[in-house]
Each structure stands twice: as C-alpha cells, then as structure tokens.
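Sequence design from tokenized structure. All designs in this work follow the same two-part layout: the structure record, then the generated sequence. An example of the structure record is given first.
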C-alpha cells in the first residue's frame, strides 16, 4: 500500500476494524479503468470487511481473500423534504443520470417507441443530468415528470446486468417522483410488489410509460407504497445502524 493508506493501517494496528463500502464501481472486472481498479483493490486489502451493494460477485471477493457482507445503498437525507405533486407536469417521461454511449443509444430507441407528442428531459449523448450533485434542482425535474425512468446502471457489465438496486430507487420516491425501473435481482428483497413499477425490455418500458401517464392514481399508489418502504427501512440512517452492528461484531472478534 502507498502512503495514502497509512491512516487505515494505523487504525488496524490499533485493533480498530475498517470497512470499505463499495456501492458503485464493479472493481472485480477488467472493464474498469486500470488505475482506479488497482488502487481500489489495494485499498480493499487494507480493510477488515468489504460492504457490497450486490451479492452478485461474492465469490470474486472471497477468491481474493476479502470477507464481504451485503449492505445496499439507501436514501440520502436531502431526499426527504419534498411532497408528492399532483401536477401540472413539464414532462411525460424523463431520465436523470450520467450520460454514456449505451444510455444515449437506449434512450434514442425509447423515444422512437413513444408517442411523438410526449415531452422528455433533454439528453444529447454528451452530457447527462447528474442529480446527486444538485438535489433541489434535481427534485424539481423529478417532481415535474410523470414517469421517471431508471435505465441501465454503471455497474452493469456488457452482457450481465447488475443485481444491485440503483440509487434512484431509494431517492426518487422521496423526492416525490414516480419511478419506472429496469428489473434487478435485489429489488424484490427490499420493496413489496405494490411499491414497484418495472420493465424488462424497451418495448415493455414504452408500454408502461404510456400506461402510467394515462393512470395518475395508479402512479400515486405505487409512489406512496415506495415512500413508505423507504422511510421504514432504507434511509442511510438504517445502513449506518447495520454498519455499527457489524463493526461491534468485528470489535468483539478482534484479538486484543
């Protein structure tokens, strides 16, 4: 480890367990930028426990000799201050997130499948709308859209969809926005069926956008159920409580 890891090593020498919460970049595969991948792997070697947002690659971590536990992401506090709107809406559908070539291609195809008069948030393929950087501005866009779409994830590997729950799933409902999202393995673990609106293909996504635009009360029912599930179990506060529990378990197990 380089000198930048010295604070972590000092904590370990004092018998204080260290966690690393990997909730985005898939450091287990070679598609990640090599410098980022290598530095992250070196940092993981300094930690006592790796917290991951998906069980998908548990075997990879274990093969590296890295103990891991599943801890999904959750809603950040800035998402809590927005009520559910009843209109008027600026957009029939929108995608809010970081632009990449794959998403640009998918969204262009999705536009072609939808009614031509549907308004959507602009996405020019070179830059996206990074909602986490501007929470109040982003909330206005989320709340001003009838159907927010979550489509693909930066953790997805070509040919292999990530199991992990996208951060939009936790945050958009608390912002007051209805979310239609692509199906992921872990979603059903954290949300009851009445709190989810999902799709598997672009064609199904387009059909469901039209359906939910035409049925606002159904959107509202799903949104209320999602907000209830998040407030009960999926705030970052809940994740911190879980981490404290895991940390206490490691402290008790650490030889003195």
């Amino acid at each position: 480890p380089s000198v930048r890891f010295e604070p972590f090593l000092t904590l370990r020498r004092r018998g204080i367990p260290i966690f690393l919460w990997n909730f985005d970049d898939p450091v287990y595969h070679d598609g990640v930028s090599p410098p980022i991948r290598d530095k992250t792997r070196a940092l993981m070697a300094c930690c006592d426990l790796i917290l991951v947002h998906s069980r998908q690659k548990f075997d990879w971590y274990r093969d590296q000799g890295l103990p891991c536990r599943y801890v999904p992401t959750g809603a950040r506090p800035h998402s809590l201050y927005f009520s559910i709107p009843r209109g008027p809406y600026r957009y029939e559908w929108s995608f809010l997130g970081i632009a990449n070539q794959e998403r640009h291609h998918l969204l262009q195809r999705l536009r072609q499948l939808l009614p031509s008069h549907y308004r959507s948030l602009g996405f020019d393929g070179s830059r996206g709308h990074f909602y986490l950087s501007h929470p109040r501005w982003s909330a206005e866009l989320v709340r001003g859209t009838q159907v927010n779409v979550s489509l693909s994830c930066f953790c997805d590997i070509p040919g292999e969809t990530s199991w992990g729950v996208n951060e939009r799933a936790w945050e958009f409902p608390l912002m007051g926005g209805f979310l239609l999202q692509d199906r992921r393995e872990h979603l059903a673990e954290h949300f009851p069926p009445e709190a989810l609106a999902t799709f598997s293909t672009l064609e199904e996504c387009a059909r469901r956008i039209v359906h939910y635009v035409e049925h606002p009360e159904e959107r509202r029912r799903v949104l209320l159920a999602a907000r209830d599930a998040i407030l009960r179990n999926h705030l970052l506060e809940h994740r911190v409580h879980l981490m404290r529990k895991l940390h206490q378990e490691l402290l008790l197990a650490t030889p003195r």
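The longest helix spans residues 216-233. We note this feature because it recurs in several other targets discussed in the main text.
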